[in-house]
Amino acid sequence: MSGKRRRFLGACDLGALAVLALMAVLVLVAVSSASGRTGAAPTLSTEPSISGVPLQGNSLHGNRGTWSGTAPISYSYAWLRCNENAESCTSVSGATTTAYTLIAADIGSTMRFRVTAKNAEGSKGADSNATGVVGTPGGEPASSKPPVISGFAEVGVNLHTTTGTWVGTTPITYSYQWQRCDTEGNACKAVSGAKSSGYTVTSTDSGKTLRVKVTATNSKGKSSAISEQTAVVTGGSGGGGANSVSVNDVPASERLVVDQVVFSPNPVKSRNTPIEIRIRVKDTRGKLVRGAFVFVRSTPILTSTPTDAQTGADGWVTYHVSPRADFPLKTGYNVQFYVKAYKQGDPTLAGIYGSRLVQVATVKP
């Protein structure tokens, strides 16, 4: 064999050996990578769940669901109390096991079960679906939120109350009793004849506070709840009725003033609940004005726009508007409303009208 051929074969052998060596290195790298692979953090396969009937005194039981990941995995638990829409949840103090007995504070709320899975690679939390609204064992009415009074504590002003929030066998009917109390809201006595959801503050109430007791009744029984007290009622000066002036008697040299705008609820937490807007109109002399028309609209348009209505003898008018699907629910956010009070027949941009931009806060559920 010639020297040239031997040199050629030798070069081929060296090339083959180099290829084999490279393949061996790749195999070693692959094996090394496989043996040194990072472990997996917990991953949820089946979500947590709750069993049990949501009635006061009953026990609920939480199932942690199914998890995967590098063993060992440890679990911690919490029970959450949420509103009737399964929103705005907060942890129940001390409820950190898989079982929880419902108490009176849970009535009217829904419950969730939270599981946190943890291993050496990380942790992950997951919540169950919410229970139904927690009720009472016998179905009798039970208050979960007390009634709320809206309006200013001034002689001549019309106050209004909600029923509050109740659970129990439906239908539930409601009755009302307004109470006159001392400045601290104590020593309350029933106001004779004040048995509707609205109440006009009188001079007898001056220097006092007011509460309202709402009684809920159904086929299983009845129960009552009492509102917080109002501010101390101020005296009759500038109150309403005889102390108000007709919009037709406001001199052309004066203007209307959008004096007060009260939103309820405030902040707004849900698009499903109408927003009550109460507006009080005075003139630039400080007199309450009756018969003034009031226009109100969100800017931009995020709610329904009500038909213009007139102020009453106390200078107030009340509207209810419905949030649209694009109404923003963001913590720290506000929605603006344009409010205009005017005398019917005046030119649009003239006359004695007065206007104001106001806003209502919103929060993320």
Task: Give a brief description.
By secondary structure, this protein is mainly β.
Number of domains: 3
Count the strands?
27
Average of per-residue pLDDT values: 87
Distinct helical segment count: 1
Q: Helicity range of the residues?
A: under 10%
- The general outline is globular
Secondary-structure class: mainly beta
CATH superfamily of the largest domain: Immunoglobulins
CATH architecture of the largest domain: Sandwich
pLDDT below 50 for ≥5 consecutive residues: which ranges? 27-37, 237-242
Q: Give the termini separation.
A: 90 Å
Alpha carbon gyration radius = 34 Å
CATH topology of the largest domain: Immunoglobulin-like
How would a crystallographer describe the biggest sheet?
A: 4 strands, antiparallel
Q: Order of strands side by side in the largest beta sheet?
A: 6-5-8-9
Order of helices and strands: HEEEEEEEEEEEEEEEEEEEEEEEEEEE
Tell me about this structure.
This protein has 365 residues and is mostly beta strands. Helix content is 9%, strand content 40%. It is built from one helix and 27 strands. The strands form nine sheets. Strands 6-5-8-9 form a four-stranded antiparallel sheet, with no helix packed on it. The chain has a four-stranded antiparallel sheet with strand order 15-14-17-18, with no helix packed on it. Strands 24-23-26-27 form a four-stranded antiparallel sheet, with no helix packed on it. The protein is globular and about 85 Å long. The protein starts with a helix and ends with a strand. 29% of the residues are buried. Mean pLDDT is 87; it is low at 27-37 and 237-242.
